[in-house]
Specification:
Layout: H1 13-23, H2 36-42, H3 48-76, H4 78-94, H5 106-133, H6 136-167, H7 180-189, H8 194-208, H9 218-247, H10 252-280, H11 284-301, H12 305-333, H13 339-367, H14 376-393
Length: about 400
């Protein structure tokens, strides 16, 4: 079992396993999602928006850290960043288990800030490694497989956390300890992409001079579109526990299973993603956004947790297709030596979604107070419809371009 790349530069099976191990930890930010309702009962004097901040602050903290991490990867190394980030995230996330009797919610928030720092450090590494080391259909396949694995572990994390919450509100934090397993795998077999990126940069300097190539302006558009679409998906994940509790449809354990349907949809999408690109080509963005709208409708109207779960499944599939396509498109138009930085930007959009979710939730209830917790769904439908129309009218052709040399 070689820990190195083959002599011809191709990744070995163990290299691929080492890279994909990183995706096993990328859903740690969602561990507390099924526990939000339990937190609101334990911290009864804390308002629901602040309670949800525990699930969302990791996103806003990780955004600048992800961008900085992506920019520094060619200097500090991909592997050291991955291991350090996972370690910080796992230890910082688990320690509130040791404080079952606390009444100060700020301690939970502090733990989540630490998780956000670790998440931001390691989050760009997986996608950046794949984009740097792979091309063509192999890159599409591994990006899709990566997000599939991410949400397989999302299912594991949220299921374990949901049922641990039934023991006690603080037991959900123990689910973070699962992250030590993929950390060890990455430590053993993950290849270092720093040399590849530096070699490409050196070649760029020789052929085009010392001017660092610019990042295409289209990256900002892809990032904002990805943020809008992903916020629709992740907002539903964040509010599901509270919505089902409010409707009287499910407790924490069953809510975890409902949330996991998003992961199942994402897993299926990851397996089918290369085929989705072949079938829908540049219109994959608009079609994916249309299915986000379709998935939101059962969540709004659901008379049972099963119907709600169907909507969540569709959201997982469509949101994964949209975001993975955006990652692939940015990889196609970005100069190779700027890939780590751009990967940091894109992954920060994924992390920003959970931060925005509770505020979208609160603003929705202010706009439509008569609907209560259900107010968020019409607002998300409008956002997704706008993305859908733009995506269909203006296809994202970069998805079908070749990666620049």
């Amino acid at each position: 079992m070689s820990m190195r790349r083959n002599s011809n530069g191709a990744l070995t099976t163990m290299n691929v396993i080492g890279i994909l191990a990183l995706f096993c930890t990328m859903s740690e930010f969602a561990i507390l999602t099924p526990s939000i309702a339990a937190f609101s009962h334990h911290f009864a004097d804390t308002d629901i928006t602040t309670i949800m901040l525990a699930n969302s602050i990791t996103g806003i903290v990780s955004v600048p850290v992800s961008i900085a991490s992506g920019a520094l990867l060619p200097k500090i190394g991909f592997k050291p960043a991955a291991i350090a980030g996972i370690l910080i995230m796992t230890v910082g996330g688990a320690y509130p288990f040791l404080m079952p009797d606390i009444t100060d919610y700020n301690l939970i928030i502090f733990s989540r800030v630490v998780v956000g720092i670790g998440l931001g450090i390691m989050f760009p590494v997986g996608n950046a490694s794949i984009i740097a080391l792979c091309e063509g259909e192999q890159r599409s396949r591994l990006l899709g497989l990566g997000i599939t694995i991410q949400f397989v572990f999302n299912i594991i994390y949220t299921t374990v956390a949901g049922y641990l919450t039934e023991i006690g509100w603080n037991y959900s934090f123990l689910a973070y300890l699962i992250g030590f397993v993929p950390m060890v795998i990455a430590l053993l077999w993950m290849p270092e992409a720093k040399g590849v990126v530096r070699a490409k940069l050196a070649g760029q300097v020789k052929t085009k001079g010392a001017v660092k190539p610019k990042i295409p302006r289209s990256i900002a558009g892809y990032a904002l579109f990805a943020l809008a679409a992903w916020t629709c998906v992740v907002t539903v994940q964040v509010v599901t526990s509270s919505v089902l509790d409010w409707r009287g449809l499910a407790g924490p354990g069953e809510a975890a299973l409902v949330i996991n349907c998003c992961g199942i949809g994402t897993i299926l999408c990851g397996l089918l993603f290369p085929y989705l690109v072949r079938w829908f080509k540049a219109r994959l963005f608009g079609i994916s956004a249309a299915f986000i709208v379709i998935g939101l409708i059962p969540c709004l109207l659901a008379p049972s947790s099963i119907v709600y779960a169907l909507g969540v499944f569709i959201l997982g599939f469509a949101g994964s297709a949209f975001f993975t396509a955006a990652q692939n498109a940015t990889g196609n138009v970005t100069p190779p030596e700027r890939v780590p930085f751009v990967s940091g930007i894109m992954t920060s959009m994924m992390n920003l979604g959970p931060f925005l979710a509770p505020y979208v939730f609160s603003c929705s209830m202010l706009l439509l107070p008569a609907m209560g917790f259900d107010a968020v769904f019409p607002v998300l439908i409008v956002i997704a419809l706008v993305v859908c129309v733009i995506g269909l009218v203006h296809p994202m052709r970069a998805l079908m371009m070749r990666k620049p040399e």
